[in-house]
Amino acid sequence: MKREEIFQYVKEQYGTEPEYLWKKDPDSAVLRHKNGKWYAIIMAVEKKTLGLEEDGKINILDVKCDPDLVGMIIQTYGFLPGYHMNKRHWITILLDDSVSEAKTLDFLDMSYDLIDSGK
């Protein structure tokens, strides 16, 4: 999935607009729940930083995840422990088409719901 597709989906689904908070990283955006808490972050990071072997940058999506599922999910290619986030509660999804659009949106929805419920 592409960043723009995610931004379009969350705008239609939740009325969310990306927020660009960091001058040093102007392409990174957070998606904020109506309660003010972040439910997703999209950024481009060096592949090697994530433990990938290739050079260059990759777009990633960090989402909140049920802690009981994290250990199982990160065993699947395309999913990693949350980059720059609490690795017990957040996962990183590679936006390189290794994870289907449907699955990416399912995890985005789960993150929104987890933030909504305060879990």
Walkthrough of the structure:
There is one protein chain. With 119 residues, the protein is α+β, with helices and mostly antiparallel strands. The protein has three helices and five strands. A five-stranded antiparallel beta sheet has the order 1-2-3-5-4. A hairpin with a 5-residue loop joins strand 1 and strand 2. The model has no long low-confidence stretch (mean pLDDT 93).
Question: Mind sketching the topology for me?
Answer:
Layout: H1 3-14, E1 29-32, E2 38-46, E3 57-64, H2 67-73, E4 79-81, E5 90-94, H3 101-117
Antiparallel strand pairs: 1-2, 2-3, 3-5, 4-5
Organism: Blautia obeum
Protein name: MmcQ/YjbR family DNA-binding protein
GO molecular function: DNA binding
Strand content: 15-25%
Number of H- or I-type helical stretches: 3
Helix/strand class: alpha+beta
CATH top level class name? Alpha Beta
Helix-strand sequence: HEEEHEEH
- The CATH topology turns out to be Aspartate Aminotransferase, domain 1
End-to-end distance, in Å? Answer: 27 Å
* Lateral strand order in the biggest sheet: 1-2-3-5-4
Helical proportion, percent range:
25-40%
Count of beta strands: 5
Pfam family, one: YjbR
Organism: Blautia obeum
GO molecular function: DNA binding
Keywords: DNA-binding
Key descriptive features of the protein:
119 residues, alpha+beta, Aspartate Aminotransferase, domain 1, five-stranded antiparallel beta sheet, 30% helix, 24% strand
